[in-house]
Amino acid sequence: MIGKRRNREIGNLGETIACNFLKSKGFSILERNYWRKWGELDVVARGTSKEVHFIEVKTVSHETKADLDREVTRLSARSDGSWRPEEQVHQFKLHQIHKAVETWLAEHNFMGDWQIDVVAVRLVPREKYASVKYIENITV
User: Fold this and answer.
1) What CATH code is carried by the domain that includes residue 80?
2) Percentage of residues in the chain with pLDDT exceeding 90?
3) CB within 8 A of 109, min separation 6: which ones?
4) Residue 78's pLDDT is what?
5) Which residues are CB-neighbours of 93 under 8 A, at least 6 positions away?
6) Residue 50 falls within a domain, yes or no?
7) 32, 37, 68, 98: which has the fewest C-beta neighbours closer than 10 Å?
8) Does 140 map to a domain?
């Protein structure tokens, strides 16, 4: 139970960091944690061009910034598909996101432009440090 609670805390912190990042880029946060039994949307935001962005947030935590730096260096030196937070947005997850997006669009009678994005957060809670990678329009 402690592990699940810790993961949820890290996930919530990652979502807060992602929202702050998005706001700094001019986004308006419309909703967080939109949930239906068939899928969840971590963040729903309006972009500067008024399009709606459905944002999946993936967070990984490290004990120290030195650990994070070593991991980033190791991953950039390898080409074997080593795990990165954004790699957890796989086909099944995308399917769930699409179902939730369709529901959100219908509930809000939204007929404008929209896209699905990913925000990958790497953080070191103890040192109050985070890095953010924003990946736009992950599906066509």
Assistant:
1) 3.40.1350.10
2) 51
3) none
4) 45
5) 56
6) yes
7) 37
8) no
Q: What is the DSSP string of 27-65?
A: -EEEEEEEEETTEEEEEEEE-TTS-EEEEEEEEEE-SSH
Contact present, 118 and 135 (Cβ < 8 Å): yes
Alpha carbons within 13 A on the beta-carbon side of 90: 4
Structure tokens at 20: 């702050």
Count of domains in the chain?
Answer: 1
**Tokens standing for 17?**
């960091």
Tokens of 52: 């709606």
Averaged pLDDT of the chain: 83
Domain span including residue 51 = 2-135
The number of beta carbons lying within 10 Å of the beta carbon of residue 22 is: 23
Of 116, 125, 131, 129, the closest CA to residue 44 belongs to: 116
Segment 15-45, tens digit of pLDDT: 999 999 999 999 999 999 999 999 999 999 9
Residues of the chain with pLDDT under 50: 77-83
Residues 133 and 124 sit within 8 Å (Cβ to Cβ): no
Residue 91, in any domain of the structure: yes
Beta-bridge partner residues of 70: none
82 occurs within a structural domain: yes
